[in-house]
Amino acid sequence: MIEFTIEGTISDSSLGGGLQSGTIKLFKIPAGGGLPDLVTSVTSDATGKYSITFQRDKSEEYRIVFEKSDYFSEEFTIYFSQLSTNEAYVHNFSVEARSEIKWIIRNVNPQNTADQVTIQKLNGRTDCEDCCPITSYEYTGSVYNDTLSCAVAGNKYVRFYIVNLATEIHLDSVLCPSFGVAEYVVEF
User: InterPro entries, alphabetically (predicted)?
Assistant: First the structure.
């Protein structure tokens, strides 16, 4: 029986140190394509280390998927040509804790239906289902009360512009706590 080993350490880039109890799943992609097939799943130890040993087969590509509650999932591809039966393939990586920024938008001085405010998000994650694109979000109306929520990396700043009635431009940022919610009230 011929075996490969993939090992490494998972670091928490939001809080520092190794990340304990993360789930690392190894999938194989059959030669010529096809659906990923789960080979095995392991859990990182107290220092963030993991090790996966598996039998060599005819797969050309392998996929590592990392998951842990309150962290963004990560996915990596490793090709058959990168693996060796003589030594372990080392794959260290870091992951980010989840956080949320919530803009609370209110028209507190309604003048007419053309009242407008724009939030221009300048940075932050865009690669998850509840992440927001880096773009402008416009809110118009005389009676307005809404919320814009975006998943972001924990312990990082999110920068943005607030443009009020296309005349007043304000650059700001908010530190988003790991595993928490940062709220920012936008009144126009």
Answer: CarboxyPept-like_regulatory
